[in-house]
Amino acid sequence: MKSFSPSETELRNVLIPQNRLQERVSELGQEISQAFDGKDLAIVAILKGSFVFAADLLRAVKIQCSIDFMGISSYAGQPGSGVVRITKDLDESIAGRNVLLVEDIIDTGLTANYLLQALKQRKPASIDICALLDKAARRLIDLPIPYRGFEIPDVFVVGYGMDYQQLYRNLPHIAVLRFNNEQNATRDANGSDQAGDKSVS
Ligand code: IMP
Ligand code: MG
Fold first, then answer.
1. DSSP for 110-160?
2. Are 116 and 101 in contact (CB under 8 A)?
3. In which element (H, E) is residue 188 found?
4. Nearest CA among 174, 176, 181 for reference residue 195
5. Can you give the three-state secondary structure of 68-97, one letter per residue?
6. How many CB atoms lie within 10 A of CB 105?
7. What is the spatial order of strands in the sheet that 157-158 belongs to?
8. Which distant-in-sequence residues (6+ apart) come within 8 Å of 32 by Cβ?
9. Which residues are catalytic?
10. Is the Cβ atom of 106 under 6 angstroms away from ligand 1?
11. Cβ contacts of residue 87 below 8 Å, gap of 6+?
């Protein structure tokens, strides 16, 4: 893990409090339970960011389903390409099953799109995305997200499983992280300071 001094980053406001997360996850669970009732549902959670969301979502889904995990990390040399390295593959086959790809956040959409295309080659019966957060303003690719928790402004967020340099995953809510130094400021460009003061209802 890279080290950084605490002064480089600063936790700002709570964007989504714990009770709103719980309410929305429970609604998503109901929607998914209805949509996949009577079908063979295979939940696929993308590690690490989605593990907290996936654990809560799984318990909000009231129909029979399985869960499997895929670990990915982006190639250091190709930021923004969407090409990822699979660090842990699925344990079970998804052929012929109805897959729900669970992601923490869709930003440009390149990562989710890459995974979608890669998993389609394994011949699932269907494959849909469920994302807790959607930074729609940053999207570079058209990507349907039938199950979406919240649309958020273009700010860098942490908590509820999401990290900055592997930290802050343990926050029970979603908070805005502000970068104080120039180098990291590019990661939350486009007026995030102002946006960081907004909250999501
Ligand atoms: P995309 O390929 O641009 O859609 O970005 C995908 C991945 O970048 C997400 O799955 C996250 O792991 C990470 N990411 C994007 N925005 C944030 C953020 O605000 N906080 C933490 N991780 C983020
Ligand atoms: Mg992710």
1. HHHHHHHHHHHTT--SEEEEEEEEE-GGG--S----SEEEEE--S--EEBT
2. yes
3. none
4. 176
5. EEEEEEECCCCCCCCCEEEEECCCCCCCCC
6. 22
7. 9-16, 174-179, 157-158
8. 41, 57, 60, 61, 100, 130, 147
9. 107
10. yes
11. 47, 71, 72, 73
Residue 195: pLDDT over 50: no
Lookup: tokens for 5 = 């001094």
Q: What's the pLDDT tens digit per position in 35-84?
A: 999 999 999 999 999 999 999 999 999 999 999 999 998 766 666 677 88
**Closest ligand 1 atom to Cα of 188:** 19
pTM comes to: 0.88
Looking up tokens 């003061």 gives 197
Pull the structure tokens for residue 39: 């079908």
Task: Name which of 74, 201, 188 is nearest 135 in CA terms.
Answer: 188
> Distance (Å, rounded) from C-alpha 142 to C-alpha 80?
15
Ligand 1 atom 11, closest CA: 105
Six-digit token pair at 98?
Answer: 């109805």
Among the bound ligands, name the one nearest to the CA of residue 9. 1
Ligand 1 centroid to Cα of residue 38, in Å, is 33
Best mutation site among 104, 145, 164 for ligand 1, i.e. most ligand atoms within 8 A of its Cβ? 104
**DSSP label at 47?**
E
* pLDDT for res 78: 61
